[in-house]
Amino acid sequence: MKKSKASFILTLVLMLSLIIAPVTQAMEDRTIDQDELLVVDENNVINYNELRTDTIQRLSETELQKLKDKIVSDYINRNPDAVLKIPLTDAQMRKVTKQKETNIEELILRKQIQLDKQSKVESLNIDTYNKFSTNQVFPRANAGFSVVSDISNRTKANFGTDGTGWADAKSDYQCPGGIGSGYAISSIGLVVPVTGSGSSKALVTIQGLYNGYMQVAGVTSGNFNFHAYTSVDVDIYEVNPSTGALISLVATSNIYSNGFVLSVLPNSFGGNISETLMPTLYAGKTYYFAITAYTESEMPWYDVFCWATADMYDDSANGASGGEGVDFTSVQITLL
What is the number of domains present in the chain? Predict the structure, then answer.
């Protein structure tokens, strides 16, 4: 009798589980469709208990940005006297800048940067060029490259020669759901073969625009183990004309370099570029005159939702001239 009763109870439990399972699955399916309401409800209140990896990863970019904006607003309202921005120290800036230089040097040594020449390449003849008279102006880019160190939802970079040329880069890490660190490099510029004989000093003016922002924020702020960093440089590289691989850095100048361990509000930056370098150009060599954007951010594990973003990427158009990123305008060369 006891054995029969136990068998009956077991059978009843199995039947109930078969009935309840589809209902539970349906509830889970409805939850997936309502992730945004789980996180920010109809009263515009955040349910912090729902800030889990699975919930956050199902949000669209628009929903995620809305959540971040709401978290920042709530944080400022709760902490009206809080420090909202802390830049990297001089020592930290030296460290991330050195790491940037090392990353690029290693890529060149491994021949992992190869230019994508997308339009006509004009040459510069040292022998026939009328020195000191007028600048030779190259009014649009014809090449570029982009390199990332991590998966596309954390680091991304792109470039194009449409218009006069553009380059975009972004590093974006968050916890939970995207911890780690990584960089993105994007460059746009002009490949010019130098013909004739001998060599000549030259004044090379590279012009363009740059825009972007950095943000290091979260539900709570004050953990200084994460950061965002961005730099913009004008560069001259020697290039292998057959493969497009960068051979060596001939000259460089930094236009913008900054970083933060805390920036509750997005820290926007931007400006015009008109930088003159004075390299020696050699006949028989090919050069790449460029503007290069570099972004890097780091987000280790932390016990609340937070993020570190270095953004020079025009998300609205999936990369394009104008907006965030780098726009190339021209290169002017005067032989001396």
Answer: 2
- Indicate if 72 and 93 belong to the same structural domain: no
Query: Six-digit token pair at 296?
Result: 């890097």
Angle at 85 between CA 83 and CA 91, to 5 degrees: 120
Structural domain ending residue among the three candidates 52, 78, 104? 78
User: What does the alpha-carbon distance between residue 280 and residue 101 come to, in Å, rounded to a whole number?
Assistant: 22
E strands, 51-154, in order? 85-87, 124-125, 136-138, 143-148
Single pTM value for the model: 0.83
Domain that holds residue 73: 2-78
Phi and psi at 37, nearest 5°, equal -70, -30
- Which residues touch 75 (CB under 8 Å, ≥6 apart)? 82, 217, 218, 219, 220, 221, 264
CB distance 39 to 50 below 8 Å: yes
Number of Cβ within a 10 Å radius of residue 247: 16
Q: Note the pLDDT tens digit of each residue in 198-253.
A: 999 999 999 999 999 999 998 876 666 789 999 999 999 999 988 889 999 999 99
Q: And the tokens for 61?
A: 């970019």
Residues of the chain under the 70 pLDDT cut: 1-44, 118, 129-134, 221-224, 303, 316-323
pLDDT at 72: 92
Whether residues 204 and 276 fall in one domain: yes
